[in-house]
Amino acid sequence: MARGKSDKLSNKAGGLSSSPGCQRRRGAVRDKFTPRGAFPHCTYPRNGAINMCGRKMGVVDGSTKRKESEGWNTEGRRKSEDESSERVRARRGYSGDIPHIREPSENWSEDLKQWQSTAVVYQRVCAHPLVTMFWTLLLALILLLVLQAQLYVCLRELRSSTIPVISVNPNETTNSSTSRRIPGAIIIGVRKGGTRALLEMLNLHPDVEVAKAEVHYFNMDENFQKGLDWYRAQMPLTLAGQVTVEKTPGYFTAPVVPARMWSVNPAVKLLLIVRDPAERLVSDYTQVLHNRIQQNKPYQPLEELLLRRGHINPNYKALQRSLYHQHLARWLALFPREQIHIVDGEALIRDPFPELQKAEKFLELPPRIMPDNFYFNTTKGFYCLLSAGHDKCLDESKGRPHAPLSNEAFQKLCRFLRLPNQIFFRMTGQNFDWC
Ligand SMILES: Nc1ncnc2c1ncn2[C@@H]1O[C@H](COP(=O)(O)OS(=O)(=O)O)[C@@H](OP(=O)(O)O)[C@H]1O
């Protein structure tokens, strides 16, 4: 196509005049019968009367007149030379006002008549306004066709390559292009359970794309009111067949979330990564403490929040978030147990690969995550990720030293959590090595 375009353009640059039947081409070789400055590919009569394009050779333009007044004819010969040949022509019985007349042949008058009649035909054909219009229209048509073909090629390239197609339909999947799709799987919690690690590790799989930031669509009213298009816009681009995954640990404990999530996609696969709820509580407090210190806000020691008059304070928010059985009950009221995959957060810290194998199976993905995607980083004290020669460790907000809590307070917490944990084990059909 580009070649076609350049061909057309080069024709144009080659100097097409407006009347294609009588065109003047730059750089064409002038034969000895062709006057200087004339149209070389048009046939010129040797007797010089009228050319094949119907132009009378004797027509003298302004510059010719000027040259003549300076004593030069149009071929650069001195006027006096021409005057002598004029005299010769006059002797032979020919007189005319046409310059540059060459010697006629013996039967020149017949030649002349023949050329004249041919010239008249050409003149009619070349100079007729309908013919000019025809050629102009033909050129315009060709140009239009070339442009149309180019536009078609451009549009095809755009569709097939760089520009992503943003789908309007939430469940739209197209085979050839990328779209932003609502998640097929969501890590719903638990907060401080290892949700970031799980998300990044799943992202090692070629058929998984993850939303980098926590979305908080279902648990925050102001986000939920923005609607599904807003939610989808937060998602990464995926190809058909890839799974979109987001993680928002706040989903697990927010009472409104299960019903909202069900209404959007009842088939969504749910991943819940859990960790010893007592450890989780301490980690939760440590995170809040860190944020308050950063914001220069006042804070209380953990023990003051956890205990009231020496007993566990059941209203402490971080403790409520550790009562997994209560939150899970709301999810199981809507989603079947098989639709919720429970990941062991402590096992993920110890050895991520087996947990990732189970998650792949649950997401119905082919096994693509390998043991050598992980290596233990002794400085961090955690496994880091390896993929395509790049390594990645989670940032310093993960694995901070926990805030202090007395042994006595911790034991009280463990005792308080024993029953809730047992209920959770029964609900899930899984046991964990918690306090
Ligand atoms: N590989 C690896 N690297 C670093 N950290 C890891 C890893 N695997 C799990 N973890 C544990 O993840 C805990 C943080 O959990 P979350 O990511 O869910 O926290 S958050 O709720 O998103 O804030 C974090 O908890 P803390 O140690 O209490 O900070 C980590 O112990």
List keywords for this structure.
elongated; 2 domains; Rossmann fold; single chain; three-stranded antiparallel beta sheet; alpha/beta; five-stranded parallel beta sheet; 435 residues; binds 3'-phosphate-adenosine-5'-phosphate sulfate; 16 helices; 12 strands
How would you summarize this macromolecular structure in one to three sentences?
The chain is α/β, with parallel strands linked by helices.
CATH topology group of the largest domain? Rossmann fold
Order of helices and strands: HHHHHEEHEHHEEHEHHEEHHEHHEEEH
What is the CATH domain class of the largest domain?
Alpha Beta
Q: Which stretches are low in confidence, meaning pLDDT under 50 for 5 or more residues running? A: 1-104, 154-174
Strand order of the largest sheet: 3-5-2-6-9
pLDDT averaged residue by residue: 77
Strand tally is: 12
Are any ligands bound, and if so which? 3'-phosphate-adenosine-5'-phosphate sulfate
Strand content: 5-15%
User: How is the main sheet built?
Assistant: 5 strands, parallel
- For the record, the count of structural domains works out to 2
As a percent range, the share of helical residues equals: 40-55%
Protein described:
Residues 185-415 form the Sulfotransferase domain. Keywords: Disulfide bond, Glycoprotein, Membrane, Transferase, Transmembrane, Transmembrane helix. The protein has helices at 2-13, 62-69, 79-91, 108-127, 129-160, 195-202, 221-224, 228-233, 257-264, 277-294, 302-306, 317-321, 324-332, 345-350, 352-362, 407-428, and strands spanning 179-180, 185-189, 208-210, 237-238, 243-247, 269-274, 307-308, 311-312, 340-344, 374-377, 382-387, 390-392. A five-stranded parallel sheet has the order 3-5-2-6-9. A three-stranded antiparallel sheet has the order 10-11-12, with no helix packed on it. It is an alpha/beta fold. The model is unreliable at 1-104 and 154-174 (pLDDT under 50). It starts with a helix and ends in a 7-residue tail after the last helix. The protein binds 3'-phosphate-adenosine-5'-phosphate sulfate. 3'-phosphate-adenosine-5'-phosphate sulfate is lined by residues 191-197, 249, 283, 287, 348-349, 382-383, 394, 398-400.
